[in-house]
Design a protein that fits this description.
Elements (H helix, E strand, L loop, with lengths): L1 H22 L19 E2 L1 H4 L10 H6 L6 E10 L6 E6 L3 E2 L2 E6 L1 E4 L4 E7 L14 E2 L3 E13 L10 E3 L4 E5 L1
Antiparallel strand pairs: 1-2, 2-9, 3-8, 3-11, 4-5, 5-7, 6-10, 7-9
Length: 177
């Protein structure tokens, strides 16, 4: 009889321990959902809204000589466009201009890099000044790809170009006409 009570007690304790193990959990992380609802005629893809454009490595000597360096293409994709009277879009890049050249975005977060800035050009090679609208892009119903190029440039002919790493951040606004 004593043995049966002990066996029953062990069985109950074992089941309770098994239940406790099954109920335990691990902190797995967080998920953030973000987006926007707009009255604009088009949406913007998530990849376009938050992107990194790698400009690679440019030699200081080329910039000092005023030589052209490679242009890096990037795009903003407008999605699900339902056009009414608004048939064109313009993009304004909101970053800070470079000291000494208001056509370029100024370098930020530099680790030594100086004397240069970033030019943003439309697909027809027109430089888009920070804070000013791009040339108009004609839109179609559905998806539209707005193509741009970015290029490292010397701020001006007298700027001392210093080698180093840099980051440049800019926001953008899309307006419709």
């Amino acid at each position: 009889m004593q043995m049966t009570k002990i066996t029953a007690l062990l069985l109950v304790l074992g089941m309770a321990a098994g239940s406790a193990q099954a109920a335990s959990s691990i902190d797995g992380g967080n998920i953030t959902f973000k987006g926007a609802i707009t009255t604009s005629p088009c949406g913007i893809t998530a990849d376009s809204a938050d992107q990194v454009v790698d400009l690679g490595t440019v030699t200081a000597s080329k910039l000092k000589k005023g030589e052209e360096v490679r242009r890096t293409p990037f795009s903003i994709v407008l999605t699900d466009c339902e056009l009414g009277t608004q048939k064109t879009a313009k993009v304004k890049f909101t970053g800070s201009p470079a000291n000494g050249n208001d056509e370029l975005l100024g370098l930020q977060g530099t680790e030594g890099a100086k004397g240069a800035g970033i030019a943003i050009m439309s697909d027809n090679n027109t430089v888009i000044k920070p804070g000013e609208d791009s040339p108009a892009f004609n839109l179609n119903n559905g998806d539209n790809v707005l193509r741009f190029q970015a290029q490292v440039q010397r701020i001006n002919d007298t700027a001392d170009v210093t080698a180093g790493r840099f980051n440049v951040q800019t926001g953008f606004l899309v307006s419709y006409d």
